[in-house]
Amino acid sequence: MAMRFAIILSLAALAACSAPTEKSPFDRLAADPVKHGERLATVLGCKGCHGKDLTGQDWSAPDFVDMSTANLTVSAQKYSVEELKTMIAHGQRPAGRELWDMPSFLFTRLPDADLDAVAHYLKTLKPIGKAAPDPVFYPAARAEMAKGIYHSSAVEAKQQFANRGPDAGPEFERGRQIVRASCAECHRIELDGKPAYPGEPHNPNLRIVASYSEPDFLNFMITGKAAGNRELPMMSGVARGRFSKMTDAERKAVFAYLKRVGELSN
Fold it and tell me: Each residue of 130-187: pLDDT tens digit?
């Protein structure tokens, strides 16, 4: 009984760290929250990490970790909507076990209505296949854990909760929220593209968007074709697979915010 009460208190504390009163930066194209959640699951990258059918993918690193993203068609059925929201935004299962390599830090500021929609959508999925196995950490990974280099998703979410990204002013707040929940996965919340983990590549500083015209940037977000009709490693696929599913208003908000951040940096 005492243990159950402690778990309830823990979940309540995590829920208190979310941002339920903030207005959603995402357009609501359908009254049905499940439809809204389905679109967000694509835009926010759920289908990029967990596969197009959300049955999970192998993300193992040899001699470091055996890791598969969750089969959400199976695992989502084990939890309530509120429990799923805690896992998404705080990287922690209801019983307290932490998730690993789940980018929960992106979603700590996501408004409750959006988290609720994603969780409701996941609950509608028909189970396919088996649940993913638990990760296996090898000595190299455990050594980095001990040194504080390799963090769990729960630790990252707590560390990044207060970090909202560069402030460009209230008129650009919508773009700021969208960028924090999406672009920050590769470019960091600071948007400078610096490696967040030893050995990772240095990604472009998104302040470079200030050099784009709005038509060129919006075309890139839809087609994956950068200036000069160039294909960019990984990013072009992300644009076609995720950002093309944004609304025009959402893409324009992203451009306006990133352009302003770039201008303020000059």
Answer: 999 999 999 999 999 999 999 999 999 999 999 999 999 999 999 999 999 999 999 9
Question: Can you read off the two tokens belonging to residue 77?
Answer: 């059925």
Q: Would you call 224 helix, strand, or coil by DSSP? A: coil
Residues 216-228 pLDDT 10s:
999 999 999 988 8
Is 187:200 a contact under the CB 8 Å cutoff? no
> What's the rounded Cα separation, in Å, for the pair 130 and 75?
9
Burial zone of 163 (CB within 10 Å; 0-12 exposed, 13-18 middle, 19+ buried): middle
Measured CA to CA, the distance from residue 215 to residue 150 in angstroms comes to 40
> Model-level pTM?
0.90
DSSP 66: E
* CA 163 vs CA 78, 103, 107, 108, 174: distances in Å: 31, 14, 12, 10, 16
b/e burial code for range 10-43 (CB count within 10 A of at least 16 → b)? bbeebeeebbeeeebbbeeeeeebeebbbbbbbb
Give the confidence band of 21 by pLDDT, cuts at 50, 70, 90: low
Copy the structure tokens of residue 113: 């209505």
**49-53, 166-170, 231-235: least confident range:** 231-235
What's the Cα-to-Cα distance from 257 to each of 143, 168, 178, 194, 253, rounded to whole Å? 39, 7, 10, 20, 6
Task: Please report, for residues 79, 86, 97, 110, the alpha-carbon distance to residue 94 in angstroms, rounded to integers and kept in the order given.
Answer: 8, 8, 7, 19
d(CA 262, CA 220): 18
Q: How far apart are CA 85 and CA 100, in angstroms?
A: 16
